[in-house]
Amino acid sequence: KTTNPGYAKKILKEKAGNNYVRILWGISGGGPLYAEKASPEVERRGTVVTFANGLKLDVAQKTVDITGYPLADKHKIVSVIYRDGTTVKEVPTGEGPGALSVILLSAGNTYSIVVADRKLAVSLIYRLYYLGGAGLEHFKLATQSKSIDGKVSMYLYAITW
């Protein structure tokens, strides 16, 4: 937050451990946000799906049961985000510290979820990657590809202005 090049050099040369990390996060606007990798469904009973991370989600009502979730004592699920055709919808589920959102993904008849800090879950990058750009007026998927082993998906979007 300064234009003094000497100050920036001093910060970058300083190796003061946690203080150095705090300074860098302060410059960038905050600390890292919590996010998990996609968690596949492991069981389904009617409309209630249990995922590998312990969360249970009623896919019809968009309600979440965090009883089996290992981080239930530290975090609160505040919304469920999902794609509905060409739009994205967010259903509020509560408030609390460590506000996380669940992104519900469907591929055919199979579900998976991504749990992330709400700020990240509603971000442009997550909407492009996980929700296919749904609801974003100025982005159109140009091409997509998977790595040889099928573990990495890559997307290229054209910006339509």
Describe the fold and architecture.
This protein is an alpha+beta fold and 161 residues long. The protein starts with a helix and ends with a strand. The chain has helices at 5-13, 18-28, 118-121, 124-131, and strands at residues 39-45, 48-51, 56-58, 63-65, 76-84, 87-92, 99-107, 110-117, 139-146, 153-159. A hairpin with a 2-residue loop joins strand 1 (39-45) and strand 2 (48-51). Helices cover 20% and strands 40% of the residues. The strands form 2 sheets. An 8-stranded mixed β-sheet has the order 4-3-2-1-8-7-5-6. Strands 9-10 form a two-stranded antiparallel ribbon.
Q: What is the 3D shape? A: globular
Q: What is the rounded distance between the termini?
A: 31 Å
**Taking Cα atoms only, what radius of gyration do you get, to the nearest Å?**
19 Å
Main sheet, how many strands, which sense, barrel? 8 strands, mixed
Strand order of the largest sheet: 4-3-2-1-8-7-5-6
The total count of helices amounts to 4
Pairing-aware structural class of the strands and helices? alpha+beta
Provide the β-strand percentage band.
Answer: 35-45%
Global mean pLDDT = 85
Uncertain regions: pLDDT < 50 for 5+ in a row? none
The run of helices and strands is HHEEEEEEEEHHEE
- Roughly how much helix do the residues carry, as a percent range? 10-25%
